[in-house]
Amino acid sequence: KPTYLSDYRPPAYRATHTELTFDLKPDATRVKARLHLERHPEREAGAALELDGEQLVLKSIAIDGQPLEQDEYALTATGLIVHRVPERFLLDTEVEIAPQENTALEGLYLSNGMYCTQCEAEGFRRITYYLDRPDVMATFSTTVIGDATREPVLLSNGNPVERGELPSGRHFVTWEDPHPKPCYLFALVAGDLQKVEDSFTTMSGREVALQIWVEEENLDKTDHAMASLKRAMTWDEETYGREYDLDLFMIVAVNDFNMGAMENKGLNIFNSAAVLTHPHTATDAAFQRVEGIVAHEYFHNWSGNRVTCRDWFQLSLKEGFTVFRDQCFSADVNSAPVKRIEDVSFFRTAQFAEDAGPTAHPIRPDHYIEITNFYTLTIYEKGAEVVRMLRNLVGWEAFRRGSDLYFGRFDGQAVTIEDFVGCMAEASGLDLSQFMRWYSQAGTPEIDAHGEYDYANAEYHLTLRQRTPATPGQPEKKPLHIPLRMGLVGTKSGRDLPLTLNGDSLGSDAVIHLCEDEQTFIFTDVSEAPVPSLLRGFSAPVQLRFHYSREDLAFLMASDSDGFNRWDAGQRLAMLALDDLIAAHRNGVEKVMDPRVVEAFRALLERGGDDKAVLAEMLTLPSEAYIAEQQPLVDVDAIHAARTFVKQSLAVTLRDEFMALFEANRSDAPYAPEPEQIGQRSLKNVALNYLMAIEDEQGIESAQAQFRADHNMTDVRHALTLLTHSSRTDLADPALRAFGEKWAHDPLVMDQWFSIQVTRPQSDALDRVRYLMDHPAFSLKNPNRVRALVGTFANQNRVNFHRIDGEGYRLLADVVIELNRLNPEIAARLITPLTRWQRFDETRQDLMKGELERIRAEELSPNVYEVVEKALA
Ligand code: ARG
Ligand code: ZN
């Protein structure tokens, strides 16, 4: 049964203070809860008290000290109802739970012998009976009792206020969190952990202790997370004026975790993959990911915790805003253009696909069956794009004033997206009512642009037409307010021309607003024929079509003043060539490489450029997944063949240039995850990629030498990937064996070893997946292992997952069926590639639907049920 946004009502009762006592035992943890409850002022008197609770064994219940009789309450599968309660009262309950049996990793569970929690969104109801909804905010006081030897460390939110010894080798710590919070921000950790400590002085001069808690063997992997945390704290003070509000900030690394990390108040819990780094175990990309996630969770302290969501339909209120904040942070401390390129290429591949599939939903959905299915690219990344558009619409200063207004006015409250956008409207004086449609309308808007230069009148006419395709449940779409940043690049001068619209001069880089289905913009005093540079910086999350000639694109690649659009022009040019080759492959015609692409790449290599990371991006072809997104019907084999052909053609013609680029960017400097070094490594490794695409002898030697040199994980992993993906088993096997033996003890490195093998384009990849699922380092119970092996295969090895014999689909469905029982959240996520069946040929469609139907025949968790039903609807 779905939950609807339109059914929202405040709760009949609310908790103002919550006292918890945990007596930890793996199979029988006792949780005592004393809730200070009162009738909600907006609700009528006399309503029953309804508490959420799942998989709890109730041991006792009392109101104001009086134990309840059997007939005074009722237990259901999803909660507890007390028929009559006073206006204000204390409710005492005691329940028993079994953390050891908890494989769903929601609520309280054990990970490597360590107790930890994940309560967002609705995990707290698996810990105790409660009003498990974000608009109930209480102060918490938590006592944790554990075994002094097995659990020397006992953590919860806020500040420790008391600790002591207990009989039979037990001990306790009491924590107090003075900031009212919804229970989804509750956290508890207990185990044999070690800490790394540092401190931070806030802008008002308060001293905050910073602690990162890990298993002993990981103590040497915390430096980067700690440094990132301090950078994030400074950035949020300088950029948003937001200061930290407790004396202690803790991060804990756990091995078994469904997502990246969680922003529990004062006690962030991280997937170990999202916090641990060491030059020998983590790649540059992992270092940057850790920095971004540490910042993201820290930023939630304001955008999420101090001001939270009224209900889960508002999830993007905190997630979209916080992703936008972490993206800006990463852009500020790294290469900003590269950060934007990376984010957009990921977005256009994965979010566009979500928007085009059966699970498409608005940034603010209006109903759901299982909220954990809505921690999606749409809520997070499209939500961030919409906040970015707001920032650009109102300008940074008004945006900052709006953000101050929002944090000030709603501090300590649970609010809605209207409250946020309302602050931006108030601070800027702009009418944002049409803009609000971005939150309720699903699907990716398509813009068809047509331009014409009128020599005689020195005018440029730009016509824009917008259309958002129908999505499930939304057949009709209204026009959106789309801000389009653009320039006109003069073909003679190679410069941005001044823009004049309706007599107003807008400078040479301007934003025009498309608000209707179709609009024509007439630029006057355009002194030479231009090529339009549209949607600069990806100023709106739309699909923009314009009939550029290949000459136009090569020109923009070289001359556009906007770095992002220079990169995008390169991608478009490569796409045009790829389209031809895909068609040639399908028609059995001989493939011919477009010399204009080769020349554009040669020009890039000759020009060089000072941002090596940008150059590396420009030399990288669109991924198979992105190419697939651009095709009306996905032909995985043709796409793979076409992309390989382009890569090899470029490599053959520009072999010496790539070799020179590789040599020029080698370095023995001590590893540092700094933007400049990272850029240089990417560039060198892109060059090696091309050389290996043609199995160049010198390239092979270089890859082997880079693997053996063992300088840092970025280089080792890249070399190992190239050797493993080559057609020569004599290159792959010894390297894989050496790496696997060396890192057998480190699960996060073994994840990389799994991923590298299952992305092999060779036809034995699927057999490898099955074989590796029996490897001692693999476990279906660990989400990181599942993602590294099965998720990576299904999402990144397109030719083998989509094998025409259906074996790839069958393998995925087998895993989903097993995980449906163990971990429904991960199971539901894993189905994604099967939900995209409409995009493929009839044979594959039937095979994919067949597997979805096989899943549907099982006894399903709500998570898997919701996804499968939508996929087959
Ligand atoms: N709020 C967390 C974050 O984005 C994610 C928690 C997701 N929880 C879940 N059960 N899916 O930082
Ligand atoms: Zn978040």
From TrEMBL:
This enzyme's EC code(s): 3.4.11.2
**Annotated Peptidase M1 membrane alanine aminopeptidase domain residues:** 225-438
Name the source's superkingdom.
Bacteria
Please give the start and end residues of each transmembrane region.
none
Catalysis performed (reactions): Release of an N-terminal amino acid, Xaa-|-Yaa- from a peptide, amide or arylamide. Xaa is preferably Ala, but may be most amino acids including Pro (slow action). When a terminal hydrophobic residue is followed by a prolyl residue, the two may be released as an intact Xaa-Pro dipeptide
Its BP terms in the Gene Ontology are: proteolysis
Keyword field: Aminopeptidase, Hydrolase, Metal-binding, Metalloprotease, Protease, Zinc
**Pfam families in the record, alphabetically?**
DUF3458, DUF3458_C, Peptidase_M1, Peptidase_M1_N
Q: Any idea where the Peptidase M1 alanyl aminopeptidase C-terminal domain is?
A: 551-873
Which stretches make up the Aminopeptidase N-like N-terminal domain? 103-185
Root EC class = hydrolase
- Identify which cofactors the protein needs according to its UniProt entry: Zn(2+)
The terms under GO molecular function for this entry are: alanyl aminopeptidase activity; metallopeptidase activity; zinc ion binding
SUPFAM superfamilies associated with the record = Leukotriene A4 hydrolase N-terminal domain (SSF63737), Metalloproteases ('zincins'), catalytic domain (SSF55486)
What positions does the domain Peptidase M1 alanyl aminopeptidase Ig-like fold occupy? 443-546
Family according to the record = Belongs to the peptidase M1 family.
What is the purpose of this protein? Aminopeptidase N is involved in the degradation of intracellular peptides generated by protein breakdown during normal growth as well as in response to nutrient starvation.
The name of this protein is Aminopeptidase N
Question: Organism, per UniProt?
Answer: Halomonas chromatireducens
